Amino acid sequence: MPLALLALAVVAFGIGTTEFATMGLLPQIADGIGVSVPQAGNVVSAYALGVVVGAPLLTGICARVPHKRLLLLLTGLFVIGNTASAVAPGFGTLFAARFLAGLPHGALFGVGAVVASRLVAPDRAARAVSKMFLGLTIANIVGVPAATALGQQLGWRSAYGAVAVIGLVALAALAAFVPNQPRGEQSGVRHELRAMGNKQVVIGLATAVVGFGGFFAVYSYLVPMLTHLTGVSDSSVTWVLALYGVGMTLGTLVAGPLTDRALRPTMYWGLVLLAAALVTFYYAVHSTVPALVMITFIGAMGSLITTPIQMLLMAKAKDAPTMAAASNHSAFNLANAGGAWLGGLVISAGWGWASPNLVGAALALAGLGLAFTGGVMDRGRRPSEVITQASPVTGQETPVRTAD
């Protein structure tokens, strides 16, 4: 089902573009709505808040809606949110519009991951999910720089308008290429919430918050690190940041096959290598070539842990994987907020611009500890089952074992 996976990747591309392009357009947004740059930065927080709230809320409310119809509804909400952002007259309305645009983010990724896993043979489910995530990583290479340049040349509103157009393209592609996937007879909000109470789901979400917080502790302050320590000029920062996107894309390509083969070891090694890369970057940041190499590697390791965590949550939630898969993206946004906050603390304490790397390494290792604890608790149990197939006639879902 390559066209269906492509449609899901287009959705992910639009989400990645709208999420990160705002950060590069804050000065233009501040000038356009008559506020300071720090105040304009609150619209970034509004989007993240929408993601955190929307993932469990929308998947819970729509727990009985067939997956294809839910994808179309969520993508439509995404288009409305970005269109509202493009025409918002002032700060208050823009804040509300960004919150609205963020609401479907986590639910789209969660439902999309479940749909993608059911489009292919069971032993290729993680590869299908990682192909959808490629849209997000490619957005960091192409979408975000393009939207930023568009916003700088034609005004920040044009960037959100372009994202809305991407959303319309994705809406048409989803309608044309994604097959119907009926929900099982047991589907419903109570069923989804019961699955969220599984200890392994809770540990998996905690791993995402803490472990991925290490990635964001560094990403949030990468620009000042590059300009103050590495000596990269302001005009070159955008292209250097694209290396992060290249690394994320490479990591996502590798993550799918590895996760299909050995889920937990992929997650363990991803966190170990992320911690090692962040410590190395702490020392290499003063030299241009080693710094650029490590930026690419850090991006790759960050993406390497995304797919196994997503598949682990879907496996442990068993026959109610949608809310768990969506809540993973709420966890990533909490990681974004927490990692940035902790990184800022050590910089404010006078530890230097490179110090967030050490914070990030500590968070990655703490995430490894959580992941390993979950693995030990799960030892001796039968292999996990991911619900990857549903009969188009009966709607009954078929469990398929995955390698932990």
Automatic annotation (TrEMBL):
<feature type="transmembrane region" description="Helical">
    <location>
        <begin position="70"/>
        <end position="97"/>
    </location>
</feature>
<feature type="transmembrane region" description="Helical">
    <location>
        <begin position="359"/>
        <end position="377"/>
    </location>
</feature>
<dbReference type="InterPro" id="IPR036259">
    <property type="entry name" value="MFS_trans_sf"/>
</dbReference>
<dbReference type="Pfam" id="PF07690">
    <property type="entry name" value="MFS_1"/>
</dbReference>
<dbReference type="InterPro" id="IPR020846">
    <property type="entry name" value="MFS_dom"/>
</dbReference>
<keyword id="KW-0472">Membrane</keyword>
<keyword id="KW-0812">Transmembrane</keyword>
<feature type="transmembrane region" description="Helical">
    <location>
        <begin position="334"/>
        <end position="353"/>
    </location>
</feature>
<keyword id="KW-1003">Cell membrane</keyword>
<feature type="transmembrane region" description="Helical">
    <location>
        <begin position="133"/>
        <end position="152"/>
    </location>
</feature>
<protein>
    <submittedName>
        <fullName>MFS transporter</fullName>
    </submittedName>
</protein>
<feature type="region of interest" description="Disordered">
    <location>
        <begin position="383"/>
        <end position="404"/>
    </location>
</feature>
<keyword id="KW-1133">Transmembrane helix</keyword>
<dbReference type="GO" id="GO:0022857">
    <property type="term" value="F:transmembrane transporter activity"/>
</dbReference>
<dbReference type="GO" id="GO:0005886">
    <property type="term" value="C:plasma membrane"/>
</dbReference>
<feature type="transmembrane region" description="Helical">
    <location>
        <begin position="158"/>
        <end position="180"/>
    </location>
</feature>
<feature type="compositionally biased region" description="Polar residues">
    <location>
        <begin position="386"/>
        <end position="404"/>
    </location>
</feature>
<feature type="transmembrane region" description="Helical">
    <location>
        <begin position="237"/>
        <end position="255"/>
    </location>
</feature>
<feature type="transmembrane region" description="Helical">
    <location>
        <begin position="291"/>
        <end position="313"/>
    </location>
</feature>
<feature type="transmembrane region" description="Helical">
    <location>
        <begin position="103"/>
        <end position="121"/>
    </location>
</feature>
<feature type="transmembrane region" description="Helical">
    <location>
        <begin position="44"/>
        <end position="63"/>
    </location>
</feature>
<feature type="transmembrane region" description="Helical">
    <location>
        <begin position="201"/>
        <end position="222"/>
    </location>
</feature>
<dbReference type="InterPro" id="IPR011701">
    <property type="entry name" value="MFS"/>
</dbReference>
<dbReference type="InterPro" id="IPR050189">
    <property type="entry name" value="MFS_Efflux_Transporters"/>
</dbReference>
<feature type="transmembrane region" description="Helical">
    <location>
        <begin position="267"/>
        <end position="285"/>
    </location>
</feature>
<feature type="domain" description="Major facilitator superfamily (MFS) profile">
    <location>
        <begin position="2"/>
        <end position="379"/>
    </location>
</feature>
